[in-house]
Amino acid sequence: KKVSSIRTEFGVSYWDVETDRGQREFVAKDVAENVQWLGDRRLMIVDVDGNRFEVTDLDSLDKKSAGLIELVL
Known about the structure:
Elements (H helix, E strand, L loop, with lengths): L1 E8 L2 E8 L2 E8 L1 H4 E3 L5 E4 L5 E4 L7 H10 L1
Antiparallel strand pairs: 1-2, 2-3, 4-5, 5-6
């Protein structure tokens, strides 16, 4: 639903997000390997614990959230 912040250090990204199940923080290593595009504007992010976070439509996010995701990808 919303990305509050993404911080990247040494190939590891730290995400603070608002999901349909509330506020979450997660860590994803090597975004190139752990982000899968499921369509033109749909993607899935897998964190270090194997949890999956899906963005169903990048265009439905606010500008800040979409911009943060695009910076990491």
